[in-house]
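Structure in, sequence out. Go:
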């Protein structure tokens, strides 16, 4: 390594962010770029451990110590080459991934882990600035054609890999723009869409074809795709939201999180349309995860009067508990950039009912304290008797995750088998029970991380390539 004692000499530094009072007034990226000097210092903390557990923590198998060392040595071109060897879109993961690699960093045994995400995003940013990222069209064509349904990270990763292997690739997206949840689920302040657009431009120049407003199983025939293409990849995500069937659910002002985020993202894209607008309203977000934080940042930028974010789980500890040792993912209290901008976070609560104003509009939530209990080895939540209380709510966003892929349409028409959890089933080569039909990403895994989606897209690409050609040289992390 470039500096063997770096981890002993330097402490972890926090990712720079624009001031909260400044960034909440616009939709631009909240993160500020790292200056090169401090970033190289952070890269020098990579400790040349005997077994780099970060490799295992990252589903993509990113060669993290390698590019930490290259950044420390100021060898940025070599660093992006090493990064692209395992990851098609490091700007997506460097911006959006919660970094399980950092949770597995060996330095985390008794110190703060290496700032892996910061190094990753800085490498790819510098590569774009210097024009090092260019289209890589295939040297020869195979004559095979593949239809990819869904243009989220899994579909895009598979599309790029298969196109570079020489196959004809067409990506079908039911929305009006390419990108899936990257486009309409991730707020602009979290990832500006020019990062997505430049990758799509690269892929188009490589020969990938994109078709929007193409809802397979509705306005695009499943049977026609099976006839026209040699293989299909189902990468449509897990888009069926988890509902909350409490009394009063039918009241106006209660929305699924993705409906809210999509409309604002469309407005950020320049579309002239009505919003679900939080301006001057008391907002309640049910769900304490990333999607809830995205709703929070959006509501604050729209000018909400107040925002409460509710979580049924208890507040996590500030540091690892004894039953959560390294290298497990640290279950600790986390503060997203959106939380810094203003919110009241409420833990260990359950929604008892939505209360209306008499005109069909929600005005309050009745909540109760929730106690977590272990019953016969299974965790459950029970109301604490007599703990009911109310909070104001003009708008309520349900951000409790997703229950799997949408079944009507494509999935039902194809006749693919489902798992016990309702996801699309597949074999070790990523193929469903229907010959030539493969699957990857949240559609077969269930709701998960962007890094898993990219890893599965790359792995499914190898399975498809081998199915079509009898063998494959494409790398497969999973």
């Amino acid at each position: 390594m470039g500096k063997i004692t770096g981890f002993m000499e330097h402490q972890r530094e926090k990712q720079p962010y624009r001031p909260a009072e400044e960034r909440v007034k616009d939709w631009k990226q909240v993160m500020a770029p790292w200056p090169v000097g401090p970033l190289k210092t952070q890269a020098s903390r990579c400790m040349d451990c005997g077994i780099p557990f970060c490799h295992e923590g990252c589903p993509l198998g990113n060669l993290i110590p390698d590019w930490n060392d290259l950044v420390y040595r100021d060898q940025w071109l070599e660093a992006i080459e090493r990064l692209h060897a395992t990851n098609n879109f490091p700007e997506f993961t460097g911006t959006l991934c919660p970094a399980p690699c950092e949770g597995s960093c060996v330095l985390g045994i008794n110190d703060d882990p290496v700032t892996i995400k910061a190094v990753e995003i800085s490498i790819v940013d510098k590569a774009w600035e210097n024009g090092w990222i260019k289209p890589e069209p295939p040297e020869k064509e195979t004559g095979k054609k593949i239809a990819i349904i869904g243009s989220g990270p899994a579909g895009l990763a598979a599309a790029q890999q298969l196109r570079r292997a020489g196959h004809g690739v067409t990506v079908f997206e039911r929305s009006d723009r390419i990108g899936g949840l990257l486009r309409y689920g991730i707020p602009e302040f979290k990832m500006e869409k020019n990062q997505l657009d430049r990758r799509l431009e690269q892929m188009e120049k490589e020969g990938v074809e994109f078709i929007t407003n193409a809802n397979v199983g509705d306005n695009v025939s499943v049977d026609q795709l099976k006839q026209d293409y040699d293989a299909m990849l189902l990468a449509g995500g897990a888009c069926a939201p988890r509902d909350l069937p409490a009394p009063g659910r039918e009241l106006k002002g209660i929305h699924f999180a993705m409906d809210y985020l999509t409309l604002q993202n469309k407005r950020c894209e320049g579309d002239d349309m009505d919003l679900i607008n939080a301006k001057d309203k008391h907002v309640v977000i049910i769900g304490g995860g990333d999607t809830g934080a995205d709703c929070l940042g959006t509501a604050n930028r729209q000018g909400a009067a107040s925002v409460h974010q509710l979580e049924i789980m208890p507040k996590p500890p500030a540091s690892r508990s004894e039953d959560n040792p390294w290298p497990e993912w640290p279950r600790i209290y986390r503060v997203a950039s959106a939380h810094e901008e203003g919110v009241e976070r409420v833990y260990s609560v359950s929604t008892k009912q939505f209360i209306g104003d008499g005109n069909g509009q929600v005005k309050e939530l009745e909540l109760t304290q929730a106690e977590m209990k272990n019953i016969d080895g299974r965790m459950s939540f029970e109301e604490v008797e007599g703990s009911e209380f109310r909070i104001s709510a003009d708008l309520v966003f349900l951000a409790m995750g997703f229950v799997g892929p949408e079944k009507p349409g494509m999935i039902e028409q194809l006749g693919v088998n489902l798992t016990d959890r309702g996801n699309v089933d597949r074999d070790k080569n990523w193929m469903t029970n229907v010959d030539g039909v493969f699957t990857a990403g949240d559609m077969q895994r269930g709701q998960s991380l962007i890094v898993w989606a990219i890893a599965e897209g790359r792995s499914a690409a190898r399975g498809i390539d081998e199915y079509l050609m009898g063998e494959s040289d494409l790398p497969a992390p999973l």
